[in-house]
Amino acid sequence: EECSLKPQFDSTLQRLTIGVLLCWNMVSQVKEGSPAYKAGIRPGDTILSINGKPVSNNESMSSALQSIKMGEEMRLSLYRGQEEISISMTSPPMGIEMRWVEGTLIKRKHIPIWKAAYLGGSYIINFPTLIVQSIPLIRADPDKALVGPIGAGQLTVEVVKLLGLSNALFVAGIISIGLALFNFIPFPPLDGGGMLVAIIEGVRRGKRLSPQVIRLAYTIGTALLIVLAVAITFNDILRLITGESFML
Q1: Beta pairing class for 83-90 and 8-10
Q2: 87/64: higher pLDDT
Q3: Does 14 map to a domain?
């Protein structure tokens, strides 16, 4: 069936449109040596489905990836040029970067405050699990995964510029939760280290550990944390000097 359409000028996009918007998930970059690169994924490829699940936007992409366990084989259906191809590879980190085709608009959905509170609480509860699942990603790209105050500030500024203040508040909340969980790591002199000492003494039925041993453990732990903080701060400063971005 044929039909006739008269394009109208869209003041937001500053161009003629017919009211139809195609949103594709297109690969803009592929990290050389990554699983995606070795599997044959290249810039310009459009991901149509992952393990049979259709991918048409950011939400469906995230849903498809989250259903795959780390190290599990995944099957991707891609559109390249004028043909559709299939590729098999291991799960993330894939080493690819996604981008929206020019002209894509994101519509924000408002939800009731009670539902927002429920979703926020669920996210906090699941956050430790997300951290465990992200350990392979941290190992793959520690420069971006481990940041100090300087890196956190840079990330916040980039989020405000690109995604708005509301998303910056979300990032700030994630940072706060991350710091709280980090403090519970059973490593002296963190609070988790003190809890570990208390548990050990409890198992020993109240028999205290040697003060010299505790002092030595806290001294070594403090020294290691200082070295880690210096290394992370140096990397944050180097990132600013080179102009590297978190969002790209």
Answers
A1: unpaired
A2: 87
A3: no
